[in-house]
Amino acid sequence: MTPDKLHELESLALKVREHIIRLSTNGGCFIGASLSCADLIVYLYKEVLSVQPDQVNDPDRDYLLLSKGHDVPALYGTLAELGFFEKERLANHLHTTDSIYWHPNRAVPGIEFHSGSLGHLLSVGAGIAMDMKMRGKKNRVFVILGDGELNEGSIWEACLVAANLKLDNLVAIVDRNEFQANVRTEDLMPLEPLPTKFEAFGWQTARVNGHDFQALETGFNFLPRNTGKPSVLIANTVRGKGLPSIEKRADRWFVNFSQEEVENLLKELHGQAQTQLTSETLMVR
């Protein structure tokens, strides 16, 4: 990866994180998980997916499904920065006059499918991938999963079906931030060793640092390594990445910050002093 490309990706990811922080007030959002997957979504849209703002209905486009729908501020921020819709529309977050909400909505350009209840979109992605195979298409389906979401049995049912159908045009990306809602995954329902589990279900696997664009380049370059197998990229991430005051904090998954906190967090994102948070911590189930 060239230095210019790396700078371009880092600059875009910073802008996306600014959007996420601005969406964390006046009703709030799931900021911790959104910040953990921001780099993944930026890299996918800039370097992997074949889809453009003027091609959102092109039958030959690649699909991205955000199964962990509460991360949608990261997706909204990326789509707005890349011109899928106007940046000003983000100011409508949680307004009844728009569909910019806590979970993906297809009324927003670039959003492929609704999600909210966890555990569903890998099955949807497998269905789209199967349809493409039957039509002789070359496009691919990417599904972003939460690590806590892997506790859903429907995920593993979809894994069995996708391997059986040899859906090598289906790629899952696990945002491995080690939290499920307000609890660490390994304290609630241990998940490791994840690569071994996916391999046992017939998937090819890779594991990378989900905040390192050069590592992501290496990870996505492995696709497709073995024709006839679906793939999964396990991306090790940090919940709240970019804001030391909330990184790895179970109590700052969903937040509703004051406007003053938002302004201070934007400064913190740019390397200034860590924010002293005074807003109420929220437990969400």
Search tags:
285 residues; 7 strands; 9 helices; alpha/beta; 37% helix
What does this structure look like?
37% of the residues lie in helices and 12% in strands. Strands 1-2-3-7-6 form a five-stranded parallel beta sheet, with helices on both faces. It has a two-stranded antiparallel ribbon with strand order 4-5. The protein has 285 residues and is α/β, with parallel strands linked by helices. The protein has helices spanning 3-22, 31-48, 72-81, 121-135, 153-164, 185-188, 194-200, 213-221, 259-269, and strands spanning 63-66, 141-146, 170-176, 179-180, 183-184, 204-209, 231-236. The chain has nine helices and seven strands; from the N terminus they run H-H-E-H-H-E-H-E-E-E-H-H-E-H-E-H. It starts with a helix and ends in a 16-residue tail after the last helix. Helix 5 (153-164) links the parallel strand 2 (141-146) and strand 3 (170-176).
